[in-house]
TrEMBL record:
UniProt superkingdom: Bacteria
Organism (species): Gaoshiqia sediminis
Protein name: Asparagine synthetase B
């Protein structure tokens, strides 16, 4: 009688053989895919969360190479199952490269005639956001994008800075803040609003507790501590009014530029004749707006004088040499060189008032506006970015925060995240 293998047994054998084959194929693929490429060109589904992947890897001591000028500033990471899984969970596009492919790519980028470079990042920078303790009626683009990208940060304010906490951080962002002590010059329109009154009282109480007679005096000392942080090698990033008010406070020094509704006594009528521009980071020869009822700090900002229509409001990023100017190259990595403009209390900077040693990285040349500028101070670096929210053209007090799920590939927000990773990838400019 002929022996027959039961059908069920044969089916089970085939299934096990198939599973074994699939397992072997997976092993082969993983042995070949020794690198993970996180593309940052138009093939990336979520550019903003991709920065979070790079930061996540750095937190786990996984080296990340930032491929400058290659496919929008892509990231190359040694194969790691955790990184691969995080990309899948966060919806970040990923490609696998064999060792030979990765080596060929890096060799090609290293050729002198190719305007590309690979910069190694090995440690995640520790991030602090300078932000008030009370809830203000506006959001902050940096905290929004850090949260969306799942990059951790600490909130600090005047007390922590004056207590010497800045030394614990590699990167500092100045939240929408007025360093002149004029509370954003919101007095005319919002003096009776609870949030405004809370901000004033909170800052006045803090100043008194820390031994200052005026909020403006406290802010000036805080600004000086930030300057010391820069001198010692810190990284500073600021947007909107935190940019020009910082320089105004530094230039004013002991000069009283606040009227009585802000600090209880009149401002110095000769304030503009006593400004010391040697103390500023970015701007020179500017004039402070003395009228407390005018919603403007100085002529640095062009919000009230610009004649740019919204449908024509764009600024262009400069191209830099990846090998000879790696720092600005890092800070301008993007999948688009043309960025939509956006308003703010400080929208853009009058190009005529920028110091000659400051590097302009993004501008609307026709309008005479600089939007994105950078400089060095001592051992440290700073970047100023005009405007309030890259995906909300005219963000008003009380408007809801931007939902970045609707803008996962925002070129304007990418500039912020370039600065976040910059301390991990710092590379000194080479000398010719």
């Amino acid at each position: 009688m002929e022996n027959r293998v039961p059908t069920l047994f044969r089916s089970d054998c085939r299934r096990k053989a198939f599973m074994l084959l699939a397992f072997l194929v997976l092993l082969v693929q993983q042995s070949l895919a020794v690198y993970l490429l996180v593309p940052m060109d138009d093939r990336q589904k979520n550019h903003l969360k991709a920065y979070g992947i790079a930061y996540w890897a750095l937190e786990r001591a996984i080296e990340v190479k930032w491929l400058l000028n290659y496919r929008g500033g892509s990231f190359l990471i040694p194969y790691d199952a955790g990184v691969e899984n995080e990309c899948l969970v966060r919806g970040v596009s990923l490609e696998q490269l064999a060792d030979a492919q990765a080596n060929a790519l890096l060799a090609d980028m290293a050729r002198p005639e190719v305007n590309q470079d690979a910069v190694s990042m090995q440690k995640a920078p520790k991030i602090a956001v300078y932000s008030p303790p009370n809830k203000q009626p506006w959001d902050d683009a940096v905290t929004l994008v850090l949260t969306y990208a799942e990059i951790r940060y600490d909130i600090i304010y005047d007390e922590e800075i004056l207590g010497g906490k800045l030394k614990d951080y590699d990167w500092l962002h100045l939240h929408h803040e007025d360093f002149t002590g004029q509370f954003g010059k919101f007095y005319r329109n919002y003096q009776n609003m609870p949030w405004y009154q809370e901000e004033v009282s909170t800052n006045q109480e803090l100043a008194q507790r820390l031994g200052f007679l005026k909020v403006s005096e406290m802010k000036r000392v805080v600004a000086s501590e930030v300057r010391n942080y820069l001198e010692l090698g810190g990284f500073l990033f600021a947007m909107c009014a935190a940019t020009d008010t910082y320089d105004i406070a530094m230039a004013a020094g002991q000069v009283d530029i606040c009227e009585s509704m802000y600090d209880g006594d009149p401002a110095d009528p000769d304030m503009n004749g006593k400004l010391d521009y040697e103390q500023t980071l970015a701007f020179t020869d500017f004039t402070v707006e003395p009228n407390p009822y005018v919603y403007e700090f100085s002529d640095i900002d062009v919000s009230t004088t610009r004649k740019v229509q919204q449908n024509q409001d764009f600024f262009t990023l400069f191209d830099f040499s990846a090998k000879w100017d790696p720092i600005p190259t890092m800070l301008t990595q993007n999948h688009s060189r043309i960025i939509k403009g956006f308003m703010g209390q400080t929208t853009a900077f009058d190009a005529r008032l920028i110091k000659p040693n400051v590097l302009v990285m993004g501008e609307n040349k026709a309008a005479g506006e600089a939007r994105y500028i950078h400089g060095e101070t001592g051992k440290g670096f700073w970047t100023f970015y005009g405007g309030h929210d890259p995906e909300d053209y005219r963000h008003l007090v009380g408007d809801p925060p931007t939902d970045l799920n609707l803008h996962p590939s925002s070129p304007g927000y990418r500039l912020i995240l370039n600065n976040v990773l910059f301390p991990a990838a710092k590379k000194k400019k080479q000398k010719t």
